[in-house]
Design goal:
Chain B: Belongs to the somatotropin/prolactin family. Chain B: It holds the Pfam family Hormone_1. Chain B: Its main location: secreted. Chain B: InterPro entries: 4_helix_cytokine-like_core (IPR009079), Somatotropin/Prolactin (IPR001400), Somatotropin_CS (IPR018116). The complex is a heterodimer of chains A (639) and B (226). Chain A is α+β, with helices and mostly antiparallel strands and 639 residues long. In chain A, 32% of the residues lie in helices and 19% in strands. Chain A is built from 17 helices and 21 strands. In chain A, strands 3, 4, 6, 7 and 8 form a 5-stranded antiparallel beta sheet that branches. A 4-stranded antiparallel beta sheet of chain A has the order 12-11-14-15, with no helix packed on it. A 3-stranded antiparallel beta sheet of chain A has the order 1-2-5, with no helix packed on it. The longest helix of chain A has 28 residues. With 226 residues, chain B is mainly α. In chain B, helix 5 runs antiparallel to helix 8. The radius of gyration of chain B is 22 Å and the shape is extended. Chain B starts with a helix and ends in a 7-residue tail after the last helix. The chains are: A alpha+beta (639), B mainly alpha (226). Chains A and B meet through strand 8 of A and helix 2, helix 3, helix 4 and helix 8 of B.
Amino acid sequence: GAMMRKVILLLLLLCFTAHTRGKLHSPPAKPGLTSCRSPEKETFTCWWKPGSDGGLPTTHALYYRKESSETVYECPDYHTAGENSCFFNKNDTSIWVNYNITVVATNALGRAFSDPVEIDVVYIVKPNPPEKVTVTVMEDKGWPFLRVSWEPPHKADTRSGWITLIYELRVKLEEEIDWEMHLAGQQKMFNIFSLRSGGKYLVEVRCKPDHGFWSEWSSTSYIKVPDYFHREKSTWILITVFSTFTFLILMWLLHMNRHNLKHCILPPVPGPKIKGFDKQLLKNGKSNQIFSALVVPDFPPATSSNYEDFQVEYLEVYVRREQELVLEESKDLHNSCLKSESSTSDCDSGRGSCDSHTLLMAKCREAKEGERQTDRECSPMRTEAQRRLKDWEEEALNYAHAGIVSLEMSSGRVKTWPSVFSPLPRYSSSPLDQQSSLQMAKQLSLSTSSYLTQPGHSTKEALGQSYWDLCLSSKQPHLLNPPTPVCRELQAHSDVNISSIGHKRAPAGPRSPALHTTEYVEVQRVDNKDTLLLQPVVQGCGRMGGCFQMPHGEVYSKVKGVDSDNVLLLQREGMGEDRCPCVEQETNEVTGSCHKSCTVSTTQKPSGCIYTAVPVRDEMATMANGYVDTATMCTLHTC
Amino acid sequence: MRIIQRGVWAVLLWPNLLASSVPLDCREEQGILSRCPSISQEKLLDRVIEHAELIYRVSEESCSLYEDMFIPLQFQRNQVGYACITKTLPVPSSKNEIQQISDKWLLHSVLMLVQSWIEPLVYLQTSLDRYNAAPEMLLNKTKWVSEKLISLEQGVVVLIKKMLDEGMLTINHSEQGLLQNGVQPQMLESVMRDYTLLSCFKKDAHKMEAFLKLLKCRQTDRYNCS
């Protein structure tokens, strides 16, 4: 009894557990309609997905209802479209009609209904992919392209216009990843350009109805583009060859003309074109040779060059009275020479050479040396002074011999000189004859500058005359320093006219021997027109004579210097006597007031008198050739 | 000289004189259609088809707009099909039927559809205007559609005249509003009613387009409809 009940209970429990462990039979789960599609708007297919079947064999059924009626129909075809599908054929398909479709799952224990789905066939059209896709390579003037053509899916009735399809294709190279899409519209043919030669292409096509879903891609078509690169290559080869030829020819031409090119691009630096200049000498570094080579033997040109080319300003000397023109040679010469020695501030044209006293003085002295041998005296200073004086005298004689030359005013240029140079006083103790004086003059002129070579002594005289002229122009206190270098240089620069005058007048010179009287002219002033106003100076032994009196002791004044205010600082050299006569200046004639200071030294040494002169008028200060300073000076008479 | 010039101009332009004086293939009917240069039948049909396509596209957009906004639940969307107002119209609904009917009948069907929707669209417009939250785009689209429908009607009328050589079909809107007939008692809710209208119209627009395209491929083989 009790045992049996226990056994029965155990068995029941076992049965129950066995029952529970096994599949639980239950009514099926709810199926679900996955999709319905119509490939051509004439038929359609619906697919469903069954739920769990509950362990029991389950059957599914599809029921549908059209919108206008309540009649429920069951799916006519479960097999055509595969498993879990329902195929509606043409007869069963109505367009523009809503279908209410439900799927029912049934098993032994129960049934399950899916959610109903409303469909309109028109809106669920998804055509089949296009068919008969063909791809061919077409040639277009050597540039191939692909032509893709296809057919619409055979079921789709595009012919009657029942369904209108638009197509799309995609292309890619075999090795690529991304597709290139092309929309073809309603046409069934498409061209693809810009192909890579020798490439393998993949082509696919799909279609879509005007209102519907895209179809699946068609099966891939493969196509290989033939190699057409050689065409391009041949063109490139041609171009390369042609350009190479052109390049070679150009290079050849350049090579042939490289010299011209060189001249064009890098013009040669003009070398020195001085006659006689030897670059090699320069490179060697021997400057002496160079410069000696530069010396042209026949320079200045011996031809009758036009002296008018020498651009020198001329001084115009206005002569009032011919007879009264007295040359103050000594004074002027002296002054100018002194100035040339010591002045440093005046370097104007015509005066430049005056300032280079080293060279000129040297030449000066050279010239004088030979001449003054005989006249040498004990005191060196004296000798020099004497010598200088003698020189001066000679030159004066020269001029005298040269004669009076009338003022040459024709050309409007300077030339006062020859006429001014009335016979010079003969103060020298040893008068020289004309010839000798001439000779000396020549020599003197020669010695000064070598560059001014003139034929004939007449020209020399002219030079001398010009020199004299210049000396005249400078209003210097009568300093006895022979102004040889200065004046000679000035000669050189002097007017051609003057020289020509001299040339002309030279023969006339001796014609006027009458003028042997000495007359002195003071340069009064220079007016605005650069006219030198001369005034005869009263001969006075006391003044000028005294100054020239050599036996009394040569009294010279040297121009020590010119200060900034155009003041000529004179140093008087007193010889012999201690007294230092100070000479009054002629204020009236000259300019304004000048004052002087005088220092007296008792020694034999040359005493220095320092005279200062104040420039009176500014206009006088600026004379043509810049002799200014002297001109502005008041005439100071040395002791 | 001037006379010669004028003479030359006259000679060159004389065909125009003739042309302007000859009435072309246009018929004056009730003042609607005046003298006009003739347009080919194919072009006219193409234009009508384009028109119908455009109307359908816009109606589809407005319907989906409305659905998204006012009909969120799917089951509500399924209730639409039953209350279309034009279901009473003798319009073919299957391909077989359509392929069996004649061109004339196709055109007339189209015309019927077009004409039957003019009024309801106006009604729909007024109904949508009463909404509080109707989007501007929806209103514009429905307005546009109703306007275009009228021009489509005109085009179809001309097409009928051209293709079928029929007399002028009077555009009679004397019919009783289909809307009243088709009003479903249960469709009192304005939202559902408007949605029904929109979806039904969308369907009918598609019908019109399909009919016209069919007609086109029937008419001209050279278009190669296939």
